[in-house]
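User: Show me sequence and structure for the first protein, then do the same for the second.

Assistant: Starting with the first protein.
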Amino acid sequence: MHQILTDKKNIILTIALVIIVALSFILIIHPMSNNLKKTYQDYIDKKAELDATEEKFQSLKKLENIQEDIINANQNFLKFIPNEQETEDIMVSLDALARETSNNLPDFSVKDGDKKKNIKGTTRFSKKNIEISLTGNFDTVLDFIQKAENLQRFNQINSLNLSADSSTGIIDLGLSLYTFYKK
């Protein structure tokens, strides 16, 4: 009989132990598990938010780099536009090119052009129309035009007129160009 009581006690103790374990799971481990799931989900949400913020930050960095490139390009562009006092140097440069390419440059005329504004509106640009008459053979006139295109300043060719004397091979070039300067 003692054995039966011991078995009954063991069964009751086992059932009590199972109930205690089940209650522990329900009251302690399960809430901790839910809390852990919530914490993990919060981590995933924060990581996604951080990734989105990092992506925005990288986009902002790219925009800053583009802005810096634009500022540098603008500064480089402005190097090719002289001040008003330096506008006469284009005529000296063109005359030197004519001599270098063995052309005759008998005529220059300069006219003031229209005022222009830059994007910010803080610096005013003006343009001068320079009209040139040049005489030479085909190769020297072509050499002059190619070298004039490579002058280190901002110029715009407005018109170009060529006429040739077939008996002598002499070409007359009429060139009208705008040169820009800062006021």
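Switching to the second protein now.
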Amino acid sequence: MLKHRLTFKNTVFLFMLFVFAMVLANAAPTEQSRVNAASVAKKTKKAKKLYNKKLQKIYSNSEFYSYKITDIYGDKVPELLVDYSPAGESYGTFEIYTYKNGKISRMLEADSTNLNMTSYKKSKSLVLSTTYHGYVEYSFYTVKKGKYRLLAYRHHNEDMGEYDIWYYKNAKGEDISKSSFLKKVKGVRKGKKKTLDPGKWTFCAGYYYY
């Protein structure tokens, strides 16, 4: 009888130990998630503060610009996107800034002529499309060492009837074959995508407009 009681107590003890371990296992990720969320919120707050300072400088040195603050490559901390196209015009340049280690740095500067952008979070990549009087270009970028690096691009001129004819270039602007182009941009369009239309960003008239 004593042996049976001891066996029963041991079973109960092991069962309670198992339940306790399961509770800890389930609680750990929750606590870790809270820590991660707090860290992201802190970084986001600091990033936006620095972005606002950057926008103040842009205001002081620009006539027109548009901007948007949003996470474009998946680390949950937003980037600052600025388009310097003149009012009523579709040409200009744009920049992307990111926050890291307590400061902001420029990730990319590129042409923004009739620009449309699509970001892909899983591959941390960006596809830019620009058009001008029938000229159409698609540029493919990916993040390397905190910067967007051009992988390759393709273009044609629809005004010349080149609807189905594409010219392929590497990052240096040298001609490459279609197969080489596809190899370079393989894996760019992976994961959830986000379309970024500068026409829908916050438009501002800078100091030099007045």
